[in-house]
Amino acid sequence: MPRRQLFPITARHQRTCPASSADVISGMFPSDQVFIRVCHVKKGYEDRERHIREEFSKRGVPVNFFLDWDVADVTEEAKASFTASNRLRASEISLGLKHIGVWREFLKTDLPYCLVFEDDVFLAKNFVRKLNECLAEIGNPDRRAAVYLGNGCNYYVAGWKLRRGQQLYPASHARCADSYLITRPVAEARLAWIDKHKVSLPIDHQIEFIDEQLGIEMLWFERPIVEQGSQNGAFQSSVAGRRHLLRFKQIDWFLVKHWRRFFGHSSRRKQQAKSGEVLRLAPETGKIGGAKLSGEK
Predict the structure, then answer these.
(1) Closest C-alpha to 230, from 268, 269, 179
(2) Which of 131, 212, 215, 278 qualifies as a FRET site for 172, CA 20 to 30 Å off?
(3) Measuring CA to CA, how many Å separate 77 from each of 80, 98, 167, 200?
(4) Cβ of 295: how many Cβ atoms within 10 Å?
C-alpha cells in the first residue's frame, strides 16, 4: 500500500463568502461555504479510498465521494451525448463525467465554492488554514476564478517572484485537475459551454481550454497545498495507458520538483511541442485536431 508521502505539503478549507479572520485562525473547515467532493469509483481502488479517509481525517477535512459515472456506467448513448472526439479512452470519459457531475451537484446547493479532488491526493498539514486564507484572498464569491491548489505537472511560480501576503498568482494555463476550487459563476459557465460543444479532451486540458475561451481567471496557489499521488510516485495512474516503476518516478519527481520550486516552470504547450504535435481546437466548436509543427515531417 504505497501511502508514504515523500515531500510534505500543506493545506485546509472552508465555505460562503470570504472566510472570517476567526475562521482562518481557528483552522476549521468552511463547510458553510464549500461544497466538497472526491472523484472515486464504486468498486476497485480500495487502497485509494483508505488513503483519502486517513489523509482527510488527519487534516480535519470532510470526506464526500462522488461515485457516479464509473467506466461501466458510460453507455454508448452517454458517450455520444458527452464527447465530440473518438480519441478519448473510456477512463478519460469516465473521469470527465465525474468532474462535470460534481459541478452539477454543486449548483443544486446554495454554497458559493466548489472544491474538487481526485482520489490520490495528499494534503498539506496546514491545508484547512491555507484554504481559509485562499477564500479570504479571492474576496468575492461571484468572481469568475478557478484556483489550482496542487503542483500538478510540477508547475510553479519561481520562488523569487513570490510576494509576502500573496498566495494566488495569475497563470496563463491550468495545473492538473486533481485539486481545484471554483465559484458558482465558473461552474455555470463551464457547464453551459459543455452542453453546447461537448468534450474533446481529457478533463484537465478541456477545462483549461474552456476557461481560456470564456475569460475565466486561472490562479495558482503558491506554495501548493496538495500533491497528486499518481504524479509523485505514491500510486499508479488510473487513466494513463502504461504503468511506471514507482521508485524511479519518486526520484524523478523529487528532483524536478525542487528545481522548479526555485526557478519556476509553466506551459503545458512546451510538452506538446516536444512531441511534435500541437492540439488545435476550433474556438467555435472546441473540437480537436492534430497539426504537425512547422519543420516536422
Answers:
(1) 179
(2) 131
(3) 5, 16, 43, 16
(4) 6
Print burial letters for 189-217: b (CB count within 10 Å at least 16), e (below 16).
bbbebbeebbbbbbbbbbbbbbbeeeebb
- CA distances from residue 110 to 31, 134, 181, 236, 269 in whole angstroms, order as listed: 12, 20, 16, 36, 37
- 122 pLDDT higher than 70: yes
With beta carbons less than 8 A apart as the criterion, state whether 143 and 217 touch. Answer: yes
Confidence class for position 266, pLDDT limits 50, 70, 90: low
Which spans in the chain are helix H? 21-26, 46-59, 76-82, 90-107, 127-138, 184-197, 203-214, 229-232, 246-263, 268-274
Cell of 78: 452517454
DSSP letter, residue 161: G
pLDDT digit string, tens, across residues 47-89: 999 999 999 999 999 999 999 999 999 999 999 999 998 899 9
Grid-cell match 505514491, residue found: 234
Top pLDDT among 230 and 51 is at: 51
pTM of the model: 0.76
Partners of residue 68 on adjacent β-strands: none
